[in-house]
Amino acid sequence: MSARISSASDLGVVGTVRRGVQLSPALTDGLTATVLLALVATAGRMVVPVTIQQATDHGVLAPGGPDVGRVLAVCAVGLAVLLLTGQASALVNVRLYRTSERGLAQLRVRTFRHVHDLSALTQSAERRGALVSRVTSDVDTISTFVQRGGLTLLLNAAQLLLATVAMVLYDWRLALLVWLCFAPMAVLAPRAQRAISAAYAEVRVRVGAMLAAVGESVVGAETIRAYGAARRTQRRIDHAVRAHRGAAVRAQTRVSLAFSSGVVLSGVALAAVVVAGTLLGAAGQLSVGALLAVLFLVQMFTGPVQNATEMLNELQNAVAGWRRVIAVLETPAEVTDPVRPTTAPPGPGRLELRGVRFAYPGGPEVLHGVDLVIPAGARVAVVGRTGSGKTTLVKLLARLMDPTAGRVLLDGVDLRDLALRDLRARVVLVPQEGFLFDGTLAENIAYGPAPAGPDRVRHAVAALGLEAWTDTLPAGLDTPVGQRGESLSAGERQLVALARAYLAGAGVLLLDEATSAVDPATETRVSRALDRLTAGRTSVTVAHRLATAESADLVVVVDDGRVVEVGTHPDLAAAGGTYARMHRSWVTQTA
Ligand SMILES: Nc1ncnc2c1ncn2[C@@H]1O[C@H](COP(=O)(O)OP(=O)(O)OP(=O)(O)O)[C@@H](O)[C@H]1O
C-alpha cells in the first residue's frame, strides 16, 4: 500500500513542464498569438535607437543643414510605432494573466479535489498543512514563472538577438566589443544569482524561526508564566530576531553588489563604445547617428542579461513546485468509487467484518484477522486498551480506508461495491472532536450531505433534547461558534456534532467517544442526546468510559488487534475474562 505522498515527482525539467502544462491545458490557450504579439512588442523597442539614428543622420546632420521637417517626420513615425507596440505589450500582459490564472485555477481545483479523494490514511501520513501548501504556495511558485518568467525568458533572448542584429548592421566591430564587455556578466550573473538565492533561503528559514518563537511565546504565555520562563523565552526571541536581521542584511548586500556590478559593466560597455565609435567616426567609418543608436542598443543588453538568470531561477522554483503538485496528483486515491456500484436497496444496517487484517503503510499489522457481526439496530460498544486497534476498526467500518485483507460488509454488500455517496448517506462517523466551521450554530448543524433549512435544524435540536441549551445562547441557533468552534466548550461542540449526525439521517452511526472532560450538566445532555440519536439505529461506539459499555446491547473487546470477547455487559462481566478484569479495575478506580 503506497499511502504516502512522495515529496516530489522525479520527472526531468522538460518532462515536468510538459506534464504541468498537460495538467493545466488552459495555459496554452492562444499562446501562439501571445508569443507573436510579444515579439512585435519587443521589436518595437528597436524603434528608439533607429529613430535617433535616422533623425540625427538625415535630419539634424543632413548634408544641406538641419532639416526640421525630416526630424519631425521621423519622430512621428517612431512615435506611432511606439504607441502601437505599447498596445501590443499591454495586450500581451493581459492575455498572459488571463490564461495563466485560468490554467492555475484548473490545477488548484484538480489538486484540491484529489487531496479530498485521498484516503484518511494518506492524509494522516502526510501532514495536512503540507498538503494545503501544495495547493496554495506551490501553485503560486508556478504562477510567478508562468505569468512573467517563461515569456520574459523568450523575449529577453529575442531582445538580445534583435539588438545584436541591429548593432551588426550599424557596425559589426562595435557589436563584438559590446558582447566582449557583457561576457563577464553572463558568467558571473548565475553565480551571483545562486548566492542571492541561498541568502534568501536563509532569510526564509530565519523568518520561520522568528515566527515560531514569537508564536509559541504568545500561545504558551500561561505555561511560560507558570514556570517563570519569561527571561529564557525573551532570550530565544531576541536571538531569533537578531539572526533574522543578520540574514536579511546579508541578502540585501548581495543584491546591491550584484546590481551595482551590472551598472558598472554596462557603464564600461558604454564607455568602450563611445571611445571605439569616436575612433571609427573620425576615420569616417561610422555616422554620429549610428553611434548614438549603438549606445541606446547597449542599454537594451543590461536588462536581458540580468533578467535571464533571475528567470532561470524562477524556472527552477516553478519546476520544483510543479514536481510537488504532480507528486500529489500521482498518488493514487485508494478509496475509490466502484466501477459498477451495487444497485441493491439499502438494508437495515447490519455490519460484518470477515477475516479483516490491516496495517498502516510501512507499519506492522494492527488488526490480525477480525471476524465480527454487528446486528442491525444494535448499540455496540468497542472497548480495549489504548492502541489495541479500536479506532482503526471503526475507520474501516466507515471505509475511510480499505482492509489489507478480508472484507467489510454492510447488509451483505462489500463496502467497496457501494457507491461512496450511498455509503456516506448510510454510514456516518462522528469523530471525537467534530470539526466546527466558522459560522453559526445552525450552519454547523446543517453541515451534512443534504443542505437543511432552519426547520429541520430546529427539529434535530428538539429531537435530541437540546433546546434547553440552545435557548440559553445569546442568539440561539444563530449564535456564531467562532473559528473551529472556539466560542463553545468541548462538551457543546460534541452536542453540535451529535445534532449534525442526527440531521444526516444515516441508519448506521460510528462514534468515537470524546475523552475530554465536560461539566456534569453538559455530560447529562450529551448522554441523553446520544441515547436519542442511537435509538433505532445501528451504532458502534469506541467507548473510553465503561459506563457506555454497561448500557450497550453488545460489548466487543479488542486486544492487541484481535476481537477477544463479544457479549452483553452482564455476560462478559460474569465470564471472568479480559472485560471482567477491565470492568473490575474501572469500578475500583471510580468508586
Ligand atoms: N495513522 C496511523 N499511522 C500509523 N500507525 C497508526 C496510525 N493510527 C494508529 N496507528 C497504530 O495502530 C495501532 C492501533 O491504533 P488505534 O488508534 O486503532 O488504537 P485505539 O485502540 O483506538 O487506541 P486509543 O484508545 O488510544 O484511541 C496503534 O499501535 C497505533 O500506534
Looking at CATH, which topology of the largest domain would you report?
Rossmann fold
Assigned CATH class of the largest domain: Alpha Beta
How many DSSP E strands?
10
What small ligands are held by the chains? adenosine-5'-triphosphate
Outline, from the CA principal axes? elongated
Q: Give the N-terminus to C-terminus distance in angstroms.
A: 46 Å
Query: Low-confidence segments, ≥5 residues, pLDDT <50?
Result: none
Tally of distinct domains: 3
Structural features, described:
This protein is 64% helix and 10% strand. The chain is an alpha/beta fold and 591 residues long. It folds into 3 domains: 10-170 and 311-334, ABC transporter transmembrane region fold, CATH 1.20.1560; 172-285; 351-590, Rossmann fold (3-Layer(aba) Sandwich), CATH 3.40.50.300. The longest helix is centred in the middle third of the chain and has 53 residues, at 230-282. The chain is elongated. The model has no long low-confidence stretch (mean pLDDT 85). Adenosine-5'-triphosphate binds at residues 124, 360, 363, 366, 384, 386-392.
Short descriptors:
591 residues; alpha/beta; ABC transporter transmembrane region fold; Rossmann fold; six-stranded mixed sheet; four-stranded antiparallel sheet; 21 helices; 10 strands; 10% strand; binds adenosine-5'-triphosphate; membrane; transmembrane; cell membrane; Type_1_exporter; ABC_transporter-like_ATP-bd
